[in-house]
Amino acid sequence: MDASHGMAPVIVGPNQPKRFYRGGSRIHAFRGEGVADGWRPEDWVGSTTTLFGETAMGLTALPDGTLLRDAIRADPRPWLGPAHVGRHGDNPALLVKLLDAGQRLPIHVHPTRDFAKRHLRSPYGKAEAWVILEASNDAAIFLGFVEDIDRPTIETWVRRQDTSSMLRSMNRIPVRAGDGVFVPAGTPHTLSDGIFLLEAQEPTDFSVLLEWQDFAIDGEAFGHLGLGLDIALDAVDLSGWSMERLRGALVRLGAPVRSGLTTALPASASAFFQIDRLEPQPTVEIEPGFGVLVITAGTGRISGKAFDDFEVTQGMSVLVPYGAGRLRMSGDVKGLISRPSLT
């Protein structure tokens, strides 16, 4: 293909760093490849982000071995587009993951942008959103506190590792496949085992652990981003969540945008990212712009003016550069495309 005519989408393979909680078998089954040693519960898709404290672990490599981060830095406009570069520079402003909870995740929070700027020298915090791909019958998420919690109480719970008190104080929400959830930065949260999801988030690996016993990590030493517990607890939103706030963070099915394309997240996520559900009827158009496409079911084809069409099938992850232009997906296939916000 003549590069002057645009860029082609890029299929990337699994990228599963070892983590401190169990999972990964559903990623292996979904993709039909990857590592399933029980401690690789996340697949970092289209990642220009490293694990906290690491220099390279977590970064996505393109098929020719070039790191995606380096390819974008070398020529950001074809990858990201002029509007994106004007807003975010050469940072994609997005990290997408597949996450398979082989055990309940520890209760934790992610910093807001304001906290990250003040304490972590980062313009990005870690707001995140989930689209549930699979869920067991009793699967649930825990999101925010039911009532206001004071600082001495949360500090006591964390220092004593009083997990039962923390869980009882949080909103338990049953979830099923297809649900979309927005988790604002600062919100205490966890999710039960038996959940397989796609996550879009800000491009950092900032987590403050409120729970660490029974996990393969020394939370007292490594659970607070090197800030110490006193400062790290400032990242926690201690306010109670009203029913209205909870409803604003959850959608069972997104509102239709046009034939074959449906929003998967509540409107509250739109300042950070979006995830759209793609279901050709019999085709669906994908607007120009950087995105990360994960094929969630079936087999189909991707076509566009800048490249030869190609087949996609369940489990594939496809990087969509701005330079690929408008795409069309067709066939008996479904997918989720994640994009950063340009607002």
How are the SSEs ordered, and which strands pair?
Blueprint: E1 10-12, H1 25-31, E2 42-45, H2 68-74, H3 76-80, H4 82-88, E3 95-101, E4 108-109, H5 113-119, E5 128-135, E6 140-145, H6 151-160, H7 163-168, E7 170-174, E8 180-183, E9 189-191, E10 195-201, E11 208-209, H8 219-222, H9 229-232, H10 243-248, E12 250-251, E13 256-258, E14 261-263, E15 273-278, E16 283-286, E17 291-304, E18 307-313, E19 317-320, E20 327-340
Antiparallel strand pairs: 1-19, 2-3, 3-10, 4-11, 5-8, 5-10, 6-7, 6-9, 8-12, 13-14, 14-15, 15-20, 16-20, 17-18, 17-19, 17-20
Shape label? globular
Total beta strand runs: 20
Give the class-level CATH name of the largest domain: Mainly Beta
Report the CATH topology name of the largest domain: Jelly Rolls
Give the CA-CA distance, first to last residue.
Answer: 33 Å
Level-2 CATH architecture of the largest domain? Sandwich
What's the gyration radius in Å? 20 Å
- The low-confidence runs, each spanning 5 or more residues with pLDDT under 50, are 1-5
Helix content: 10-25%
CATH superfamily label of the largest domain: Jelly Rolls
Number of domains: 2
Largest sheet: 9 strands, antiparallel
Structural class: alpha+beta
